[in-house]
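ARCHIVE CARD
CATEGORY: sequence design from structure
SOURCE FIELD: tokenized fold
FIELD CONTENT:
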């Protein structure tokens, strides 16, 4: 009986312990759910914060682009004003030369003075002779004076002495008569004829040199032969390679994101139904140990699916080091990961810090690979090209450079020998109502280049300048010249018979030439420009080549 009671008591204690254990497990489950919800809230807050920063940066980029477009328009307006002033100065000079020549050609008569005023339009020499008689002179002088008569059908026929027609009341002059008299009154016309200020004396040589300024130097437009010799490009290197293969929409979106990141410092690079990859790049800096320049960047990998993913890793593909650069990627410590390899829950993100050490001008960097396990245990891999380009190592001129120096530098033999040129079809998004200014703005690459207005002879052409660090004694300037529309257009080689300029050959075709002291820099810059401009659906094809 005692054993039964003891056994019953022990059973009751075991049941109570099991009940307490179940309650403790339930409380632990509730706590885990709350913790997971808090982690999701924290991740969502971080994502919203990152999106807010991205929107702020995008607005800053738009403001910067608007200010740059305004500066370009102001530069073109200033150039147009200068050309107008030069044209007006040349016109004044021609007028003074014509006036002096006409004064020298007038016949001189001994003892007689020519009457001032207008020629007796529509009348013979007898009217001029009567005028001399009224002046107390002999009527025989009429034979010594030249025959001054204008066609009766002239718009000023019948005018005499600058006044209205004798057979018409005052104020009934024809419009052309009124306009002629107003221009003579404004210019102060007199016997000396047409000189500025109405003094009747021609300008001195110093005044002529001061008023007639030489036109600003320009780069001559590319000939039709140069357009035909330029290689045409119609294909871009791939940005994305994944397993399983991605859809066409994902490929196009990734290419667009990559192109946008060439002109921005941070933003979205890749996104599908499972993961999302964002990139943030800081400006170039110099390491304290090796003294070589490098670029710092950060990758943020987020889980976009409703399930968790396992074994998330990001690494640089081998070989991660080339003769011009080396890529390093390191995972940043995370609280919930504890050294990496753990699950990545929904809306959570991982951050990786990276660095690109630069040894020289580079056209491409080693790609990175994102690897993870799906909930069913299958492995997924995404290989991406990072938007780390040579233009991020370049700095534009802070002040407008000397136009003459830029033109001389462009035409120098060293720059011309290292030129890299290509032609491509421009994306339709850049050929809207704002063209060609939208094309020039995209070629600034987020501030890496500066447009130099007024230096291109082609009205649909532009010259951009920047600088790449070179060894001492080597010019650091990098010049990019873009011409839109193909051969032809205003100012081109006119037709033989009509004398008019032919129309632009292809409205969407753009010829780009890059010149600097380094052929490697030119190739690297040309590759970046191609990524920004090229329309892959265009009809041109080929590869980038040097000329």
């Amino acid at each position: 009986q005692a054993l039964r009671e003891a056994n019953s008591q022990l059973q009751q204690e075991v049941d109570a312990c099991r009940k307490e254990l179940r309650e403790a497990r339930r409380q632990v489950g509730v706590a885990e759910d709350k913790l997971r919800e808090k982690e999701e809230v924290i991740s969502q807050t971080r994502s919203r914060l990152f999106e807010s920063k991205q929107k702020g940066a995008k607005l800053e980029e738009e403001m910067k682009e608007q200010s740059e477009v305004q500066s370009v328009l102001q530069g073109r307006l200033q150039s147009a004003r200068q050309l107008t002033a030069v044209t007006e100065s040349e016109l004044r000079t021609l007028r003074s030369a014509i006036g002096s020549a006409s004064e020298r050609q007038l016949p001189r008569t001994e003892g007689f003075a020519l009457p001032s005023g207008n020629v007796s339009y529509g009348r013979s020499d007898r009217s001029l002779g009567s005028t001399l008689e009224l002046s107390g002179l002999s009527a025989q002088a009429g034979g010594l004076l030249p025959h001054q008569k204008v066609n009766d059908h002239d718009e000023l026929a019948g005018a005499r002495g600058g006044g209205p027609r004798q057979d018409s009341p005052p104020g009934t002059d024809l419009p052309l008569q009124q306009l002629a008299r107003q221009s003579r009154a404004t210019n102060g016309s007199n016997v000396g004829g047409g000189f500025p200020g109405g003094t009747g004396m021609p300008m001195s040589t110093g005044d002529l040199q001061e008023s007639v300024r030489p036109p600003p130097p320009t780069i001559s437009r590319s000939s039709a032969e140069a357009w035909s010799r330029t290689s045409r490009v119609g294909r871009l290197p791939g940005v994305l390679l994944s397993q399983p293969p991605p859809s066409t929409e994902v490929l196009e979106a990734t290419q667009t994101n990559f192109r946008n990141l060439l002109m921005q410092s941070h933003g979205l690079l890749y996104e599908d139904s499972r993961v999302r990859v964002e990139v943030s790049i800081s400006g170039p800096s110099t390491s304290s140990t090796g003294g070589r320049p490098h670029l710092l960047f950060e990758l943020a990998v987020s889980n976009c699916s409703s399930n968790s993913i396992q074994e998330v890793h990001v690494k640089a593909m081998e070989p991660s080091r080339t003769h011009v650069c080396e890529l390093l990627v390191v995972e940043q410590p995370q609280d919930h990961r504890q050294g990496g390899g753990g699950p990545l829950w929904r809306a959570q993100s991982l951050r990786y810090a990276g660095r690109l050490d630069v040894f020289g001008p580079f056209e491409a960097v080693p790609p990175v690979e994102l690897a993870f396990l799906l909930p069913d245990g299958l492995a997924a891999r995404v290989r991406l090209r990072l938007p780390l380009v040579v233009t991020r190592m370049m700095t534009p001129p802070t002040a407008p450079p000397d136009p003459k120096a830029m033109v001389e530098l462009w035409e120098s033999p060293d720059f011309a020998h290292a030129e890299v040129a290509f032609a491509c079809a421009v994306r339709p998004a850049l050929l809207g109502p704002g063209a060609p200014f939208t094309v020039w703005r995209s070629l600034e690459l987020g501030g890496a280049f500066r447009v130099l207005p007024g230096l291109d002879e082609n009205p649909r052409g532009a010259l951009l300048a920047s600088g790449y660090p070179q060894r001492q004694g080597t010019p650091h300037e990098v010049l990019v010249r873009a011409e839109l529309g193909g051969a032809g257009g205003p100012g081109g080689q006119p037709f033989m018979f009509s004398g008019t300029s032919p129309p632009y050959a292809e409205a969407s075709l753009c010829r780009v030439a890059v010149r600097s002291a380094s052929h490697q820099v030119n190739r690297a810059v040309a590759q970046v420009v191609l990524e920004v401009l090229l329309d892959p659906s265009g009809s041109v094809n080929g590869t980038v080549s040097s000329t």
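CARD ANNOTATION: The chain has a mean pLDDT of 77. The CA atoms of residues 58 and 427 lie 21 Å apart.
SHELF: design records, drawer C
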